[in-house]
Write a structure and sequence with these properties.
Blueprint: E1 30-35, H1 46-61, E2 63-67, E3 72-76, E4 79-84, H2 115-133, H3 143-158, H4 165-181, H5 189-203
Parallel strand pairs: 1-4
Antiparallel strand pairs: 2-3
Helix pairs in contact: 2-4, 4-5
Family: Belongs to the MCMBP family.
Keywords: Nucleus
GO cellular component, one term: nucleus
Length: 204
């Protein structure tokens, strides 16, 4: 399956020259689940490589490439992606979370959640995600917490808990989400410490 939306403008037939839709043409703020557990061994074709590149750009750049026969255009998108894999993913992503269970994967059962609860969870996640785009948590940061974060950053670099600025930026985003998840627009020391705890626990 070709994941890149494409249109063959060389064809005169109006139906044939319509833009061919693909599963990646999603509304803004969509959530995309990529299930790699269904993948099977086989030869990776040129089409497969192009699809992987397309997904990688979607993950890293939040752009989706469209093909118009003789040229290609990148369109901005806003799609949150979750990858499920039984091994290391073929796609690079910012955060890896290992699911540990004493049960075999095929025997794992999930709680039965009512549709109303699922809808509420979706609304909550959408709201928090939208707030992150224009939140004021970093603008409302006090001088005390700013100093605390800077000192923490220096100490974590010394302990090699953070290796580069990307790690620090990721931690700041996590702290902002931590504050927003409680409906607050002020980043506090508690939010920062909780974000650190979550991140370093994830790395173990």
């Amino acid at each position: 399956m070709q994941l890149m939306p494409n249109k063959d403008v060389a064809i005169d037939d109006s139906d044939a020259s319509q833009l061919k839709q693909t599963p990646l043409q999603l509304p803004f703020s969509s959530h995309l689940l990529i299930d790699e557990t269904k993948m099977e061994c086989g030869q990776l074709t040129t089409l497969g490589l192009n699809n992987i590149k397309l997904l990688q750009d979607l993950l890293r750049l939040q752009t989706l490439k469209y093909e118009f026969h003789v040229y290609q255009l990148d369109y901005e998108c806003d799609v949150r992606c979750l990858i499920v894999s039984s091994t290391k993913s073929i796609l690079s992503c910012d955060v890896h979370v290992r699911y540990q269970s004493e049960q075999e994967v095929k025997d794992i059962t999930f709680p039965n959640i009512a549709k109303e609860q699922i809808d509420n969870i979706r609304c909550y996640l959408t709201y928090v995600g939208q707030q992150l785009e224009f939140d004021k948590t970093m603008n409302n940061i006090s001088s005390d917490i700013n100093t605390h974060i800077q000192e923490d950053f220096v100490n974590m670099r010394k302990q090699k808990l953070l290796t580069n600025l990307d790690d620090f930026h990721h931690l700041l985003v996590l702290a902002r989400l931590e504050a927003l998840s409680y409906g607050e627009n002020v980043l506090t020391e508690n939010h920062w410490n909780q974000a650190k705890s979550l991140e370093f626990t994830r790395r173990q």
